[in-house]
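Quick start: what a row looks like.
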Amino acid sequence: MLLAITSPARAAALALVLAVDVSESVSSERYLLQHEGIARAFESPLLLDAIATVPGGIEALVLEWSDPDKIAITVGWTRIGSRATAAAFAASLRATKRSSNGLTAIGSALLAAAAAFDHLPEPAGHRVIDVSGDGMANFGVPPSTARDTLVGKGITINGLAILSEEPWLDEYYRSNVIGGPAAFVAVAKGYDSFADAILRKLVQEVANVPIPGAAGYRRAGGAQRNPPIAGTILGGLPPALAGVHPPYDFQKETAPRCSRCAAAESR
């Protein structure tokens, strides 16, 4: 009698929580632009090509946030490693409805996103919270307090600042929200450009995943020791985007702080 022997499934290289702002400043139209923008990103060849280079693919989850007691997971952990699984994730997202509206509790959203990592099917090599929003925190745990706690646990927090309400929000995110290795802030000038910004941000997050044993480069977008063959994907970074450091002029964690941000921190 022959017994089938199966090897354990490879753990995902990246676990990503998409934490989406659904506070009162986000109108129904703006919500749909966010919702559809994320779904479309997971149908984009740019992101799919990046994911295809990551051993084990990625685990992704969508969480909507406003008030601390209204935070909700709308799409649970989903392993994405192919076009089919990415399409299924996009379809699951499109099938959801807005969970709430309320105040802007960024710190509480970060803590809830981190708690979701405790429910991963299996531990991932790299944990990232991708938080997007259009305003500074006005309720709940201070974002900087939550950030410092989570960075201490090895979690990276990246931000997507939508500048439609507060033109300085990217500076606030740099000072109070993002943290961890290779953390960055992406910017959308308004909701009309959200889809483009979230796609570029997701590609960069996947590109930043360290690939164990990858010869010739440390990680996507990093300094190359031996250039790979032309036309290949640099550890997750599509060829069209390779060589841009950092890609898309994303703003790094080390950028200077603004006076408004310092005032917000002291409240």
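That is the whole record. Residues 28-41 form the longest helix (14 residues). The helical segments are 28-41, 45-52, 83-94, 106-116, 143-151, 169-176, 194-207, 259-265.
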